[in-house]
Amino acid sequence: MRTAVLLASLLSLGASGLAFGQAMGPPSPFLPGYLPKDALDETRFLPAPPVEGSPRYEADRAIFRDTRAFVGDPRFEAATADAEETLPAVMARYSCALGAEATPQRLPVLARLTAKAFSDVYAANDVGKPFYKRVRPPGIDPGQTCHPLTAADMTRDYPSGHASRGWLFALLLTELAPDRADALLTRGRSFGESRVVCGVHNASAIEAGRVVGASVLARLHGDPVFRDDLQAARAEMTVFRAAATPPDPALCAAQAALLEPSPFR
């Protein structure tokens, strides 16, 4: 019974608050990004996705089929929750890793910075996804997913946008709270892996998404406006953490037990 209550609490994190976006498609009203639209061309630095018949292509297929065993499992439910990309939901998902209950209201500078940086990630992925036209797993093999996919979205597997944004956010929080690096980076990894558990992305798309997230953040560091905002976010985070209430330890332990193990190896 206690486990069920903890899981329900875990999945309810981020269910309310200021809605910065939708679960699928570009969040609105995310703010305009820091970078010019052509600041990054991921088709030049990303490897091409695995080709049909190659060992990596078949490995992606095997991972999709094997991870359908999670359907109905708590990890599948957590992956479904991770699919929500409203900014309050994303910040809440990382609260245990941060060691403080983060919300846009409590961290408005960070929220604004993240909303703009996420727009830059969308701009980068809007170059790669239509270029590669990689088919998502359920377009190749039958299997249940945690949310429906439109026909137009079925060829937008590579790279994973959720993984890109989740990894960028983990790296960003690591800069602001370096003492929490291990937990934050682990959460960033599991956030991307949730897309594989959901059945909506191939494992190779998650790896590519991390590359994109890190690349966008590296490019952002070259922008003086971003650097100024980051410095303000760092000061905000210091004040916030000094007074913040830690999340429920039992809830965070349940989250770690559920999310830290990789769902595929």
Give the secondary structure arrangement, pairings included.
Layout: H1 2-12, H2 42-45, H3 55-67, H4 74-82, H5 87-93, H6 95-98, H7 108-132, H8 161-176, H9 181-198, H10 203-220, H11 224-243, H12 249-259
Please explain how this structure is put together:
- The chain is mostly helical and 265 residues long.
- It has one domain: Up-down Bundle (Vanadium-containing Chloroperoxidase, domain 1), CATH 1.20.144.10.
- Helix content is 59%, strand content 0%.
- The longest helix has 25 residues.
- The protein is globular and about 50 Å long.
What composes the largest sheet?
none
CATH topology title:
Vanadium-containing Chloroperoxidase, domain 1
CATH class: Mainly Alpha
The stretches of 5 or more residues where confidence is low (pLDDT under 50) are: 1-6, 12-28
Estimate nothing, just give the exact number of structural domains: 1
**What's the overall geometry?**
globular
Please report the number of helical segments: 12
What is the strand content?
under 5%
CATH homology superfamily name:
Phosphatidic acid phosphatase type 2/haloperoxidase
Would you kindly provide a brief summary of this structure?
The protein is an all-alpha fold. It has one domain: Phosphatidic acid phosphatase type 2/haloperoxidase (Vanadium-containing Chloroperoxidase, domain 1), CATH 1.20.144. The two termini are 30 Å apart.
